Amino acid sequence: MASVSLLETRQVCKNFGGLDALVNVDFDLPGGQVRALIGPNGAGKSTLVGTICGRIKPTSGSILFDGQEITQMATHRRICLGIAYTFQITSVFSRLTAFENVALGVRRIHGNRRHKVRGLVMEALERVNIADLARQRAGDLSYGHQRLLEIAMGLGQSPVLFIMDEPTQGLSEGEIEGFKELIRSLSGQTTILLIEHNMNVVMETAQYITVLNSGSVLAEGTGDEMRRNKQVQAAYLGRN
Amino acid sequence: MIRPSRDVSLHAGVLAALLLLFFVTSAYHNGNLARIMVLAVFAMGYNFLFGYTGLLSLGHALFFSAGMYGLGISMNHLDMTVLPAFGMGILASLAVTGAIGFLALRTSGVAFMIVTLMFAQAGYLTILLFGKYTRGDEGFVIQQAERTLFGIDLTDPTNRYFAAFALFAVSYLFIAWAVRTSFGRCLVAIRENEARARMLGYDTARHKYLALLASGVLSGASGAGYALLFGYAGATFASVQYSILPLLWVLLGGAGTTIGPLVGTAFAFYLVDVSSEFTSAYLLVVGATIVFLTLFFPQGLSGELRRRLAPWLP
Ligand SMILES: Nc1ncnc2c1ncn2[C@@H]1O[C@H](COP(=O)(O)OP(=O)(O)OP(=O)(O)O)[C@@H](O)[C@H]1O
Ligand SMILES: [Mg+2]
C-alpha cells in the first residue's frame, strides 16, 4: 500500500472464555480511506473494533494508531487521539437533549467556548438532518433518529478515524441515502471504518473491503473483487 | 437552551431573598435560617456527587464531621484562631475524602454505598476511640469568646446570620458555576451513561474523583461552619443519621438542581419545626409527608418545578 497506515492491528487475538472471537487478526487501514468491515453474524467485527477503541482488551497482539502503540492505552485517551466510535447497540444520553448529546463530545475538545461549541453542534446535527430536533430529549427520538444522533456525536468530535458499527441499521430508505451522501462528503478528510450489513451501502461508499469470518480475515479487496471471490460468496454473500 | 440571563437572575434572586428574609422575619426564624443555610451547604455538597454525578454515598457524615472536628480541635486543643481553624476543617475533610475516595471509587452502585457506609462507621468509631480529644457523643463546646473573626463576634445572631449567608453564597455560586462548565456537564453525562461518556473521551474516573473531593470539601465546610456558628462539635454528627439526612434533603428538594438542596433542607427543617408544635407524634407527620412527596413528586420539589414550569432550571 502506498499510503501510510493510520491504524494497524498485529496478530490480535480475543478469547471469550474459551470462544475464539478473534484469531491473529492483521488489519491495516491507510489514512483517508473509507473501509468496510463485513462478515456474517458473530464473525468478530464488533469485537475487533472494540479492541481498537479500547472497549475490549485483546488477549494478545498489538494495536498501533498513527504509528503509536495503543494496546494498553485507556479508552478515553484513545478517543482523545482522534478516534470516534458509534455503538452497534444505540448508546445515547437519553434524558439529555440531542443538542447536549453532541455538545458533550464537542466540549471535550473546545471546552467552555459557548459560541464555538454551539456552532459545531448545530453543524453536526445538520449534517445528519436532525438539526430541527436539537431541543428534544434523545430518548424521545425515534430509533432511526437516535442512530443519526450517534453519528452526529461522532462528527462533532471531528475525528481522524471514525468507526461506525452498523450505522444504517434501523434507518429508512431516505435516511440511508443521506448517510451515503454523508460518507462521500467525509471521504478524503476522515478515515472511516464502517461495519455494515447493507451491501448496497458497502458497495457505494467503501473504497476497500475487509471480510472477517470466524474471527479471522478471510479476504480483502475492492467491492468487485469481493463480489467475485468464491470464499466470500460462500461465507457471506452467498447467504443473502 | 442556553439562557444565562435566567440562571443568573434565579441565583441573584435566591441570594437576595435570603438577605431580605433576615429583615422581615423574627429572631426565631433568623436563627433557623442561619442553621438551614449552613446545613444546605452540606446538602449542596451531597447533591454535587449524588444529584449531578449519580454516586449515592452513605458516608457523608464523615466528611461533615471531619470539617467539624478539624475546626473544633484546632480551636480547642491547638489554640488556633477562627480563620486558620476553618482552614484546618477544610484540610481535614479534603484529606479524609481524598483517602476514602481513592478506595471507594473502585466500586460503584450498591457496593459504593456499602463501602462509604463502612468507612463512615469506622470514622465514627475512631472519633469515639479518641474520646479524650473529641469528647465522644457528649461532644465539646467551643468557647464563645474565641468565636470571633476580624473582630466580629460570630455568636451575635445578626453576625451569625450573615456569616452563614456568606458560607452559603460562596458554596451556592461555586456549584452554580461548576455545573455549567464542561466539567460539570461531564458529571451529568457520567450519571446518565458512564460508558458513553468514556467513549466520548472523558476520563470518567478522574471526574468522579474530583466531584467527590468537591462534595467532601463542601460537606466539611458545612461541618466547620456549623461548629463555628453554633459552638459545638460532637460525635453524633458523624453517626449514620447525618449520612442519611443530606440524602433526604436532596431527594425532597430535587436532586441535580442548584436550588434543590436549599429547598429540601428548609422544607425538612420546618416540617419538623411546625409539626412538633402541634403534636408529639411529629415524626409520624414527617414520615407521612416524606412518603407522600416521594410518591407524587419523585423528582423532588424543584425537580417537579423544572418538569412542569421551568425546564431551564439549572
Ligand atoms: N462480551 C462477550 N462475552 C462472550 N462472548 C462474546 C462477547 N462479545 C462477543 N462475543 C462472541 O464473540 C463472537 C464475535 O462477536 P461479535 O459481536 O464481534 O460479532 P459481529 O461480527 O459483530 O456480529 P454481528 O454482525 O452480529 O454484530 C460471537 O460469537 C459472540 O457471541
Ligand atoms: Mg457486531
Please provide a written account of the structure.
The complex is a heterodimer of chains A (240) and B (314). With 240 residues, chain A is an alpha/beta fold. Chain A folds into 2 domains: 5-82 and 160-239, P-loop containing nucleotide triphosphate hydrolases (Rossmann fold), CATH 3.40.50; 94-158, no CATH class. In chain A, 37% of the residues lie in helices and 26% in strands. Chain A is built from 9 helices and 10 strands. A 6-stranded mixed β-sheet of chain A has the order 6-7-8-3-9-10, with helices on both faces. A 4-stranded antiparallel β-sheet of chain A has the order 2-1-4-5, covered by helices on one side. In chain A, strand 1 and strand 2 form a beta hairpin. Chain B has one domain: ABC transporter involved in vitamin B12 uptake, BtuC (Orthogonal Bundle). Chain B is 75% helix and 3% strand. Chain B has helices spanning 4-24, 27-52, 60-76, 82-104, 109-129, 131-134, 157-178, 182-199, 204-230, 241-253, 260-278, 282-296, 300-308, and strands spanning 140-141, 148-149, 152-153, 232-233. In chain B, a hairpin with a 2-residue loop joins strand 2 and strand 3 (152-153). In chain B, helix 3 (60-76) packs parallel to helix 5. The structure holds adenosine-5'-triphosphate and magnesium ion (MG). The site of magnesium ion has 4 residues of chain A, from helix 1.
CATH architecture of chain B: Orthogonal Bundle
Would you tell me the structural class of the helices and strands of chain A?
alpha/beta
Shape of chain A: globular
Biggest sheet, spatial arrangement of strands of chain B = 1-4
Radius of gyration of chain A (Å): 18 Å
Please provide the count of β strands of chain A: 10
Q: CATH architecture of the largest domain in chain A, please?
A: 3-Layer(aba) Sandwich
Subunit arrangement of the protein: heterodimer
The CATH superfamily of the largest domain in chain A is P-loop containing nucleotide triphosphate hydrolases
Q: What proportion strand of chain B? A: under 5%
Q: Can you give the mean pLDDT of chain B? A: 89
Distance between the termini of chain A: 31 Å
Q: Are there runs of chain A of 5+ residues with pLDDT below 50, and where? A: none
The strands making up the biggest β-sheet of chain A line up spatially as 6-7-8-3-9-10
